[in-house]
Amino acid sequence: MNLIEQVKVMRTMKTSQEVLNRVSFIRKIKEAESYKDIIGLDNNYESFEKLETIGYKIAVKKAITVEEIEKCAISVEENYCGPLDPDEWAEQIRIKAYGIEWYLKRQFNSPAYQGFINFIADNTKQVVGVKNV
Description:
The protein is mostly helical. The chain folds into two domains: 3-98, no CATH class; 100-133. Helices cover 82% and strands 0% of the residues. The chain contains seven helices and no strands. The chain has helices at residues 3-12, 16-38, 45-62, 66-79, 86-98, 100-108, 111-132. Helix 1 (3-12) packs parallel to helix 3 and helix 4 (66-79) packs antiparallel against helix 5. It is flat and about 65 Å long. 20% of the residues are buried.
């Protein structure tokens, strides 16, 4: 089955989980193609890499519930090794699922952000204290 037919098959699938299962299969083929690349044989690694990316995009479009979208985001974070940044892509998927307000609240309530605020507050007190001396 050629790559265009693979895309057509994924587009006709009913659920995002079916597409994610197909993407998992494509990822295994891509891995086999990478071994061919290492030993210098002809391979279709780049084609399967593009097919994997397209598969994830189709899975996200087919996702209906928040749970399905979250499965897509987790799958991208844990398994995707392509030209796009998997963490950034997963965040975009989650923004689609939960909305921008959820994302901003999550960012501003994160331990890293709170640590940054505490660091700024401590340094401001030190700088102010030095100026007053």
